[in-house]
Specification:
The protein is α/β, with parallel strands linked by helices. It has helices at residues 8-14, 16-26, 46-52, 67-77, 112-122, 140-149, 166-175, 195-203, 213-225; strands at 36-40, 59-64, 82-85, 97-103, 123-134, 178-190, 233-244.
């Protein structure tokens, strides 16, 4: 499967809600400041930059499945972090991490069993995983609007996202070798100031590629027309805390 590519410049402009969500998650990652940390799904590096300040005497590695996102991270942070493109289900490391942070990423990955196994293998014994992604019920109003538009390219389409339940996630983390697992859902509604660009870039992302370029803007407008004003995306975040055995 080819890597997903994003409009990184647009995502950088539109990702204030994701940065706010990430700050909430980072506060759960108790760091001394000298750890080796992985930002798994770094996007354009906005979260990475804030995480970097929390490990002033440590090492921070940033990875993303999109080369465009990685390029934006490198442009933002220069040589302060090592950043590279990799599919997280193919992640292999030569030196394990003390902690892994991930925000707004796991719901784009279909195979959570393999994902959690790779993350466990990347952590030292006792290493921490602190993450957040879209969970069960996430943007259900947007999915309903997509269904109501009834475009042939999206008909009978379950969506590109893997919005897992806390129960299923706990079981998968446990099977992957994690303990002290804690998962829960958190509503987080977002009213984007620029709905069209936000939906086009942040919500639908690369999955608009199923449409011809000339149809994409019209499709997004049709979806937005199904939603009440002001436009709201009813996010439900799945939070994960776990420790590797």
């Amino acid at each position: 499967m080819p890597p997903r590519e994003w409009n990184a410049a647009s995502y950088d402009r539109m990702s204030d809600p994701q940065l706010a969500m990430a700050r909430d998650v980072m506060d759960r990652l108790d760091l001394r400041g000298d750890e080796r940390v992985l930002d798994a799904g770094c996007g354009t590096g906005r979260v990475t930059e804030e995480l970097l300040a929390r490990v002033p005497n440590g090492t921070l590695i940033a990875v993303d499945g999109s080369q465009a996102m990685v390029d934006q991270t490198r442009e933002r942070l220069g040589g302060r972090v090592e950043a590279f493109a990799v599919d997280l289900v193919e992640l292999e490391v030569t030196q394990p991490f003390d902690a892994i942070l991930s925000t707004a990423t796991f719901h784009w990955i279909a195979d959570h069993e393999r994902l959690f196994a790779r993350l466990a293998a990347a952590l030292r014994p006792g290493g921490k995983l602190v993450a957040q992604c879209g969970g069960a019920g996430n943007i259900a109003n947007v999915q309903a609007a997509i269904d109501a538009v009834d475009h042939p390219a999206f008909r009978d389409w379950a969506g590109p996202w893997n919005f897992a339940t806390p129960e299923a996630t706990t079981a998968r983390l446990t099977a992957a070798g994690f303990v002290d697992v804690w998962t829960w859902l958190q509503p987080w509604p977002v009213d984007p100031p620029n709905p069209r660009e936000y939906f086009e870039t942040v919500i639908l992302g690369t999955h608009l590629e199923r449409l011809p370029p000339e149809d994409r803007g019209v499709f997004v407008e049709d979806v937005l027309a199904q939603l009440d004003e002001p436009v709201r995306a009813n996010y439900v975040r799945l939070n994960l805390l776990a420790r590797r055995t």
